[in-house]
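job 3f2a | input accepted
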Amino acid sequence: MKLGFELVSTGGTAKELRAAGLGVTDVSSVTGFPEILDGRVKTLHPKIHGGILAMRSKKAHMSTLGEHDIQPIDVVAVNLYPFAEESGKKSLKVEEAMDLVDIGGPTLVRAAAKNHADVVVIVDPDDYPIVLAELAKGKVAPSTRVTLASKAFSHTARYDAFVAHYFQAELLKEKFPWDLVIPFHRREVLRYGENHHQQAAFYNDPLGIFGREPGAATFKQLHGKPLSYNNILDMDAVTEALKEFDEPTVVIVKHVTPSGIASAKTLEQAWAEAYATDTYSPFGGVVAANRAVGPKLAEELTKVFLELVIAPAFEPKALDVLKAKKNLRLLEVPGLDRAKAAEGWTLTSITGGMLLQDRDVKPFDPKSWKTVTKKKPTKDQLHTMWFAARCVKHVKSNAVVFAKGTRTVGIGGGQTARVDASWIACHKGKENIRGSVMASEAFFPFRDAIDVAAENGVVAIVQPGGSIRDEDVIAAADEKGIAMVFSGHRSFRH
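job 3f2a | predicted structure (494 res):
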């Protein structure tokens, strides 16, 4: 008002402006037409959109405005109906959701953004002070106009993406829509990508279609320099593995691959056992715990060079200890102590496209497992098999895990042959492999990995089964006196 602008607004907003002591003209007074259809039609009128879309530099446009008594509109500020916030509520009826689909608002925004050289468009209240400051100086800079217009088009695209997802998921029940529209919001620009010569950014998924539970996208950084692209990949890997376990558990990850996992009565014990799996790979690695980190564990963690420590909380004294490490990043993920992987999608980019699939959240069910060898596993061995199967699920294929009780003693993964993964795990575990249980995330195509396991003292094996050579593999286990169980559950990680 102080800057000489006349305020024009629809009914509800006009009422709020008047209550704030501002003079305002109703849209219906400008258009000469009342709001109709329960307010569905208010601003869709030539006297509104003509005033927005007229190019001030074109005499014909300005002449047309004069002929039809249309006043130019120089600033458009719109807050869209809260469809994104409300449509996810289970209690919301379809007709209520449709009432939240804004028509006039996005149309105003897009019109103003199209004519941004002459019209300032604002969709974010945080931008009000910026625009007011520049208007007070007499002119909104061209660069500001372009920035606001870009933000406006992104805003309406994001809004429409929420509406599209509602129709696809809630009304059509279409799991894989023909046109996939997903709004992502940039959380931060990262220091660099996978390598220093690559740029990267981190985006959140506001729809939650890639998972809503606590994890890599819900952290609060308490200490350390900004995260890198690889840090976030490791954080996702370590938190996803952690969600498999209810007991106090520690997972150590290096280059998106677990190097040690253990569940125990205390986090301190879990850390010691997870670290003992492989004492050299954790150098520069990532550690996650599913309980609050206390000072005793903090002291132990500082003895190893780590990139990240992740937990649902940190005790104050533990923070003091850990913050003494200048470059150690501390990430708090509230709710990680009770987080479970929920249904959703995973997305993988390929050159020129992407692949979409369900998240692998199917739980292992030991009650459905079948013993296929002459030797039966003991109750304790079955429990360890269950633990090891949940561990190997998070190791890059081909993968095997050797475990005792609820701790890993050898991990091998990311190999082109399962026997190589077995050899690597046994090489790392050495004497600790003797007496352990072996888990494989997919079937054994040959008996060679069974022979490697037997040579290193494995007593029981769990695997999905399903190979054309299953009988050969079973015979090898019988020959070596090893109990073998088929889970029927593949957890391949290509």
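job 3f2a | Residues 288 and 443 are 29 Å apart (CA to CA).
job 3f2a | closed
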